[in-house]
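Quick sanity check, AA9 family lytic polysaccharide monooxygenase:
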Amino acid sequence: MKFFALTAILASASAAYAHATVRAVFINGVDQGNGENVYIRSPPNNNPVKDLTSSNVACNVNNVAAPKTLEVSAGDVITFEWSHNTRGDDILDSSHKGPALEVYGTEWATDTLIKNGGHISITVPDLEAGEYLFRPELVTLHEADTAYNVNSARGVQLYMECVQFKIVSNGSTKIPAGIDFKTSYTYSDKGLVFNLYNEDPKTYVAPGGELSSIAVAGQAGIGPVPSGGSKPSTSTAGTTPSTTSAAPVTTSAGVITSATAPATTDAVTTSRAPVPTSKMTTVTVRSSSAIPTSTSVVATPSASSYPTTPSQGNSGTVVSKYYQCGGIGHTGSTTCAEGTKCVVQNSYYSQCL
């Protein structure tokens, strides 16, 4: 069977080894159940991908076809559910702040995602019928001040899964050429190497390319799971999408092709095999960033998001490896698990390593 790849860069936020994954989706508000290794190509754990040269950037480290494919039609609302370890848990540590592909009012996108149970929605474009991979992704920036190829202890942290869908409506839209992960997700990309603590968040440019003409206007983005049975219009956003469509999230659509395939080939036959990762292209169908543009809602954190005095924290609870143990404003435990120690990364963040 053919599997096109519809990739979704859903959120960018600060997170200290947030260990977040997508474990389930909703279609028009209906829970499809736990999708881990059922309809989601789930990785073996919730660790990030940091090596931008790795093929794991495409669908994470376990790019093995799942046995089930979910059916959707143009205009259907797909809601991805992010979680930490299990469905309905804390999603991300609330102490993790950062600039995002979506910035709401005076709070970071991570806060909004947590408040809404890790739910973020997109609308299916009027694409040709066929099987597609939707790729939700979190781009976390708390250690992105230094590239991974310079210091492997740091670097941007990417979290993504590929979710299998079959579009059963008879649309006429083909996925545009887009950008190639191999040439676009690089250590020179300012959206993937960014100093969260010293750079102006309004200067942040998210990876993933510009908003595509196949984008659907008025998508829900981060928020509660939509009520069942409600489907928006499938009109496209075009080159000048509304502010509403651009504000909450970036979602991308792309085509996976084989390196040895003819130039005219838009997809490869997978027969439930892993997606080839020699080339994976993506085009943005939902976009918002911290950079002021006509297609984005721009805001910066309120003053309360920037504590001015250090906290002594709480020495009682043991903090697991990779989690926060100190920094300005930190009120949690400062006691690291056995075999690790609290290492200062910067004035705002210390981590058990």
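Posting the structure with no commentary besides this: The chain has four helices and 20 strands.
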